[in-house]
Each structure stands twice: as C-alpha cells, then as structure tokens.
Amino acid sequence: MALIGVLGGMGPLATVDFMQRVMQLTRARCDQEHLSMIVANLTHTPDRSRAIVAGGVDPLPALLDGIDLLNRCGAGVIVIPCNSAHHWYAQMAERSAAPILHIVDASVAAVPAGVRRVAVLATGGALVSGFYQASLRSRGIEPVMPAAAAQRDIAACIEAVKATRIEAAAGHLSRALATLERRKVSVAVMGCTEIPIAARALRNARVMLIDSTQELARATVAYAVERGWGRAM
Amino acid sequence: MALIGVLGGMGPLATVDFMQRVMQLTRARCDQEHLSMIVANLTHTPDRSRAIVAGGVDPLPALLDGIDLLNRCGAGVIVIPCNSAHHWYAQMAERSAAPILHIVDASVAAVPAGVRRVAVLATGGALVSGFYQASLRSRGIEPVMPAAAAQRDIAACIEAVKATRIEAAAGHLSRALATLERRKVSVAVMGCTEIPIAARALRNARVMLIDSTQELARATVAYAVERGWGRAM
C-alpha cells in the first residue's frame, strides 16, 4: 500500500484544502479508490517567513522532524503545501528517503505558454528567498513584485486565513489584485497556500490566478497515477 | 508537543471535514495556536458496513495497523471520524496506548434534554451493530430506525459523498428526511460522517440534525484544551 506523505499545518487550513483537492482530482467511486495519505499537520512549526525575513526561530529542525516522521510512516512520496517552507527544500530533500515534489516547479509549469510577466503573491519570506523569481526567470518570464502597499495587503490576507477570518482575507486580496490590474499584470501565481482559500471568497478577479495548492495536488495525483496507486479524473 | 491522532480515510472527505471543524473550533490567530495532528488517511481500509452486514473483508487488521501507526507517531489521543468503525471500538481501545474518544458517546451526549425519540441515520452496518440504539436507550431515548426506502436513500447518500457527488447525496438525504418528518420525528443523529457533508448542501431541513463529526470535533478540542494543548473558541 503506497502512502502519500503530507508535511502540513503550515497553515492547517491550507493542508485540508490541499487534501480536498487531491480527493477531487482522484477518480474514486468508493473510499478504497481514493489515495491513502499520512498527514503530519504540524502547526507548531515556527513561522517560515519570519525566520527568513527577521531571523525568527529556525523552522528547519521541526521541518526535518516532520520529514523523518513521514519517512518512518512509510511515505512513498512527500509533498509540502507551504511555499515558504521550500526555502529549505534542499535540506529536506537531502534528509528524505522519499522524493519530495517541489511546489514551485509545479506552479511555474502551469503558467500558460506565451505569458511574459507574472506577479508573485507570496509571503515576505518567500519573496526574500527568491525561489519564485528564479524559477520564473529560468523560463524567460519576468517576475513582478507587488508594490509595498499591495504586499502589506498580501501579508494581511495570509494572516487572516491562518486565523480562519476568510472574508477579511478576501478583502485584502481584492485590494492587492486591483493594484496589479492597474499595472497591467494579467497573470499572478498564488505562491502561498493560504491565498487560494481567500481567492475562493472573491466575487470576481480579472487577474488570472495560478493556484500553487491546486498545482501541487495535480502533481501529486499525477505521481500517484503513474505508479498505479490510483486513477485521475 | 502533543499530537492528536486521527484514524481517517473512512471516507477521506469526512476526514478533511473533521479536521476543518477542529480548526474552526480552535481559537487561533496564527498557525502555532492551532492544534497539531497526525492524520492517517487510510482509504484502503476495507468497507466497515459491508463487513458487518454481508461478511465482507474484515477491516480490523487495517484499523489496528492505523492505531499502531498513530501510537508510534506519538499521538496523545486518537479519534476516528467514522461511526461504523466504532463496531470494533473495544478491540482498538485495548490495542491503543493513547485513549480513543468515542464518536457515539459524543453524539448522543448532544441530544437536547427532554427529547424522547431520535432517528438514527447511519450505514446498514452501524444499524446492525446497534451501538447508537444501545447508547440512546441507556439515556431513556427511543431510537427510531428509518423505514426500508428511507434507509436505501441514506445508503445512497453515503455512497455519493464517498464518490464526491455532493448534490446527488443531498437529494437522497432530503428524501429520507421527508419520510422522518411524516413520522413526526423531530431530531435525528447523523451517525455517519459522510451525511453532514451532504446536509450542508440541503436547502432546508425541518428535522434537527445532530452532527457526529461536529460533536467528535468538539470533544477533541475540549480534550486538548483541558490539557493545555490549545484554546477553544
């Protein structure tokens, strides 16, 4: 029996959102046709963005403990529905016997061909780390950073989702997207797994939003289906 | 760090529903104030109801494997958001070092004082096992069983949720509830964790529905709060 390992709790709502996407992307008529997972919903993991930006408590020991736990449970592949945690991707991949799918690779691969500018909606930590910018540039795409006020709205959106205040989060996201529209940006990657939860509460969005949670879920189901663990929709 | 162990995947949508209820019932402003969980979403566990009713493959070995896994991961308490699996509660509780909260106890405790008749909406297996009927009777409450046609609708509702067909599930549930209304039943316990997912898609329900997923989530958060693992809303 093959188990998908999910290193989660960063935040917890994003983890359940990810699990739900995997279920929706799986062609299953009964429980036994769904994919089995072991989910370490480790909410106590220190804040990733704060550690990168402000030298807060290092989350790497907690991340590696989670990787060890999932490997001990027999995970055949590991996914991490938290973009900022991918700042430590190399250290986690080195530690893990099971391969770790990369959320940024999955998300950037979903940018439609021909798109030349993509805004990056992410935590301050992820922007400072720069993995989205590097991945976009490697494909000839110009990363567009939100201006300071818009970035404050993105940060507030993420914080509100983590506190289960979804309507407030959608308001912040809506304001940030309006500034991108005025800058003629038509595609943005939601490079933080809290943002798609807020985006679902938006009335309308004229910016095309690439959803890192959904793309990681697609990559996970594709990985599982290739190995005969389940069937895709 | 205290971990809540969730033996899930029965079905997987019910497991994410349970996790989400725990998050909503927790007073958290950031990830670190949410409760950490280890979730064994073991969808391959053989069908519980079929095993009870029709002598299908015994799920007990898979259930005990899940209990062992959660104990090895250091779970301080275990919950199982599947009512039918509680047919094997005694065997699981005997095997587990961590205490296992009982979903039926939590649900029956939520019946308002003075209510004398409660319908049981559950799998055929759970009804044959009889744990809801016994628990209700021990509190002086008469359990009301759905008639054969209504029970077929309940079974179809559960099956549709497991296949992620929520609208179809709500239709079946609505028909079953209409027959209970005609029988002057005003309170029903949703004693299968798929049913609340269908109930959320109902336009209106004139029967008061006690939600086993929500009651187990409440009991879980209360257990955690009493031990200082987190704070309740």
Automatic annotation (TrEMBL), chains A, B:
<dbReference type="Pfam" id="PF01177">
    <property type="entry name" value="Asp_Glu_race"/>
</dbReference>
<dbReference type="GO" id="GO:0047661">
    <property type="term" value="F:amino-acid racemase activity"/>
</dbReference>
<comment type="similarity">
    <text>Belongs to the aspartate/glutamate racemases family.</text>
</comment>
<keyword id="KW-0413">Isomerase</keyword>
<dbReference type="InterPro" id="IPR001920">
    <property type="entry name" value="Asp/Glu_race"/>
</dbReference>
<protein>
    <submittedName>
        <fullName>Aspartate racemase</fullName>
    </submittedName>
</protein>
<dbReference type="InterPro" id="IPR004380">
    <property type="entry name" value="Asp_race"/>
</dbReference>
<dbReference type="InterPro" id="IPR015942">
    <property type="entry name" value="Asp/Glu/hydantoin_racemase"/>
</dbReference>
